[in-house]
Design a protein that fits this description.
Blueprint (H helix, E strand, L loop, with lengths): L3 E6 L7 H16 L3 E6 L5 H12 L5 H24 L5 E4 L6 E3 L8 E4 L2 H8 L3 E5 L2 E3 L5 E3 L5 H12 L3 E6 L4 E2 L11 E2 L1 E3 H9 L7 H10 L3 E5 L7 E4 L13 E5 L2 E10 L4 H11 L7 E3 L6 E9 L3 H15 L4 E4 L2 E7 L9 H11 L6 E5 L2 E7 L3 H11 L7
Parallel strand pairs: 1-2, 1-9, 2-6, 3-6, 9-13, 12-14
Antiparallel strand pairs: 4-5, 7-8, 10-11, 13-14, 15-20, 16-18, 16-19, 17-18, 20-22, 21-22
Helix pairs in contact: 1-3, 2-3, 5-7, 6-7, 8-9
Bound molecules: aspartic acid and magnesium ion (MG).
The site of aspartic acid has 13 residues, from helix 5.
Length: 408
Amino acid sequence: MNKIVVQKYGGSSVADPECIKKVADRVVKTRRQGYKVVVVVSALGDTTDRLIKLASQVNDNPSERELDMLVSTGEQVSVALLAMAIHKHGVEAISFTGAQVGIITDASYTQARIININTKKIEEELKKGKVVIVAGFQGVTTDQDITTLGRGGSNLTAVALSKALGADVCEMNTDVDGVYTADPRIVPLAHKLDWISYDEMLELASLGSQILQPRSVIFAKKFNVPIHVRSSFSAKQGTFITKEAKAMMEGVVVSGITCNKKEAKITICDAPDRPGTAAKIFKALAVKEINIDMIVQNVSRTGSTDLSFTVTNANLNKTMRTTKDIVKKIGAGKVICDDNIAKVSIVGVGMKSHPGVAARMFEILAKKNINIEMISTSEINISCIIRKAKAEKAARSLHSCFGLDKKN
Ligand code: ASP
Ligand code: MG
């Protein structure tokens, strides 16, 4: 039996007809090597952004069901075009929407969760020798409503299909040649990692490294799907993401630095200091499906306290509305929002066994005269909220001081 390879191509890899032809070349090459190939594609270039903008021009608070109906069209365009480009090589290929191949999700529009994948159709087409091209990012409810899986959701489609089909590897073909120690556009001295663990990748992805959607990494970790992040434009090996903790190099404390400028900080002033306050606030946000990132609450000396938390910018309006409502009910003071913040983080499994890493991070920021507004930590990451204007400087200093700069 031939091995199955799932190849995902992101929006920048299929940005225009020339790019699509190059992707077709690559797919055909893999097919001719004898693999059964399933391709997952994103929408062309910045199509999804443009569609979302279009929606906002007719309604500043569009229905999420209609939004999914709209943005899912992007991927339908790219799968069909890729199939046509592959046909030019005389290779059989067939494109499908998520609904057609039975990617069943719940009804949480714009953030739907995959419930089940029926692989029958894909397997039948693979058996006929065809390349199967599946629209990323989308699914369908049991009521036949179209859903999407959250921004970057084609990654999740690819990982989920890899698991369902028992693929050998899930290739994430993208515009970078692997996972870097930092975003090279921000930190020019960043270098490519040959290998990284799911846990570190998860931290990097959750912290705003835009290579992989966090949900796709969680899924891959849960089902142990090996991922290979590589460039769409070269044959070079990229970065493997796997479970096996290959011997971390002696002395490596920090594996990567991230810098996320897409968060906003909300502060509730004078929240009453009594049991149930935080529970009520965050319950209200949870009901609206708003993910909270950092939370900071200080001790109260006067019977009330300020409470700050961060959310992604995309959820800011919804968060402000919900927070203002709940604040009225619990009798807190005003609600302030600040989206001029950034979060810089250091990530590494090595920090579990090294003391003093946080102190070193704070010292590096202090030396650059960067004020820390919020701090949060996990076992393998330390994050600081700082002013947005200082984010890049902070990332570069941390990268260099933790010994990650590329050595030429
Ligand atoms: N086209 C969708 C987006 O831009 C899905 C994806 O690219 O993975 O978020
Ligand atoms: Mg995209």
